[in-house]
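Before a colleague's protein record goes any further, I have to sign it off. What it holds is a sequence and that sequence's fold in token form. Would you go through it and say whether the fold makes sense for this chain? The record follows directly below this note.
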Amino acid sequence: MPTEPSTERDRVFRFGPFELSEREGELRKSGVRIKLQEQPFRVLLELVANSGKLVSREDLRKKLWPADTFVDFDVGLNSAIRKLRQALNDNADSPRYIETLAKRGYRFVAPVAQGGSGLPEAGEAAAASESTIPAGTASGSGRGVWRWLLAAAAATLVIVVAFMGWRGRHNAPPLAVEQRITSNPPEAPVTGAVISPDGNYLAYSDPTGVYIRHLASGETRPLQLPAHLEPIPSGWFPDSTHLLLVAEEGANEVPCLWKVSILGGNPQVLIENAVAGAVSPDGSSIAFLRAGQDNLELWVSRSDGSSGRRLVESVAPAIAAHIGSTGAINPLYTGSAVTHVAWSPHGKRIAYITSLWPVFPDPSMDSKYTLETVDAGGGPPKLLRDSAQLRPALAWAVDGRLIFAQRDVASSSSLDTVIWSLRVNEVTGEAEGNPVPVSKGAGRIGDLSVNSDGKKIAVRRANTQPEVFISELDASSRRLQAPRRFALDDNINIASAWTPDGRAVLMVSNRSGSWKLFRQEVNQVTPEVLADGIRNIVLPRLNPDGTAILYFTGPNPDDPQHMGDVMEIPLQGGPPRSILRVPSLYNLQCARKPSQLCMLTIYAASAYQPVYQLLSFDPGSGKTQNVATYKAKTGLNWSLSPDGSQLALTWTSSEPKVTFMSVKDKSTREVELNGFNHVNTVDWTADSKSVYVVAQTKSGADTIVEVEPSGNQRVLLEADKNTRFWWAIQSPDGRHVLVEQLTGENNVWMIENF
């Protein structure tokens, strides 16, 4: 059981650079006070006081959350642990301080020293002063004191010299500096980049083409390619004059690997049905990714594309949750795919990253990644790392260091990324030593590549992310005006609802390092916080009365048994309450009064057999009732009309159509969209007479289209080819339209002599 607090004197605990004072209620790092709220402080005190022991969640609840408290215990404790990890700069995947024991509790794992703080009492001071004089040395004997002080000084000098030598040997090397080498604007983001083996050239692509940049001079020239190709550089051949590209070919737009000379000439197709590739160091083989039955798989072939064989196949994710008493399996992740590959220095092994995709449309629940290697001749893979902190980027230097990327702070929602190196034995695939940080930068990592002598790394940082824009509807033309930037912050901002009066937008953002719920007035530039300290907050919507906000907190990927909660918080602020607990929530929406209808979707099937269950629910009691079930491998998007009478449904990457369904009798009507490849999202207009659909034209441009159940349709706004819309939601008064849009800079940076 946890210890009882001391009432006799102050307890002070020291661990690492930290000092925790019970009486002062303070946590300090190297003497500097760290701001910590009362509840996280009390949790930390309990864990530290029981260092090395399991402190169960039940013990913490009984001691720190009284039975009459109004705050939800699970939410409060999870929030406290997250804030503690932020304060301690701790990592849940490789904890230095707080270890999570799934479904049991927590354990403080760092060494802890305990003692009092402040100045000792007079008697204690005298005793301490006397005890510093060695036995047998009289206080009046100057020679004895002198000899002892000289010996103590000599011993101190030895300790200082030894410490300085130890510190010199054990200090981590300084992080390398990343130097920016491309300056593309948001309108032309860099989509791919790879450095040549000789380190002289960078091949990179943007929406306007493929370019070859001479790194020493900065001279850049376009690579002459057929106009119908829109390729992305994937790798170089060892001669540094031939490039491996990925581009679609044929009427079916099948992705292929192409070989092209940067000196000129026509490109040739090497491998069909391949979405990425890497050439072996000796140029004899190509490792590539191919779409299998369900997802991307790792293959290897000769350098001319012949004799292809599969090394790693896609498998169903092992991370799943059991639903209620039925015991049915419900995945936290919908699928897996090999995403990046890299050859070992002598071509004996191939490193790759596997991505597990979360089932939820939840930006705060990240994908989970594994870093593995496999013998180039085949055999079982070796797992090196398994974490949601990993990023899909990989390179292998000539000295045996595997270069990978990982999010900077595990407990933070920031997407800033650190590049790490890890020595790996290319014969056994085993790690040799511990990871070492190489560099740190702002934003996500999109690509990593290293030249053949291992002295240069090219890094593509992908900072395109969802942002909130506002547009006004022109009453005469019935078209949307050019959207203006609404959320003036470069972090992720995702809006999904308006307040009832149409004067403010509800959104979630990670702008302060953790996900929070905000409200921002249309005529203001800064938002106000409505709720924070909540893990994976997503999809804020209004309840039917417009008096409260409903939102969803996603499940914990580190605890597959933990499901998400549908929460409610007053629109004007106040404590949240849990309405119901569901697995794998996919969407959430309510009609407006007098209708009291609310609906949600859960993903309720094993991987690769998607089943979407559409449920109605009572926001007061939390009771649910099944409305419809859909089996579809493509994503389901739907919207409930404000009057509660109809549903509009679309399927992504499927036929360009909208299905309108009557809520009353479930009758349906399909409307085809002319001139579009596919439909992405759908949202009803404020008057329940039409929907706003984000669809993609044949030329690849995102477009907002207004579609009526009768079949009438009109284009409201067409983006340029480089702009991506997520959705468009009209305000209740019909004056404004919220447009969620992807924007940001993607550029290439260089690291040398790392």
Notes: Residues 1-9, 117-170, 317-331, 360-365 have pLDDT under 50 and may be disordered. Residues 197 and 452 are 5 Å apart (CA to CA). The domain at 12-115 is CATH 1.10.10.10 (Arc Repressor Mutant, subunit A). The chain has three domains: 12-115, 179-320+339-463, 465-579+643-744.
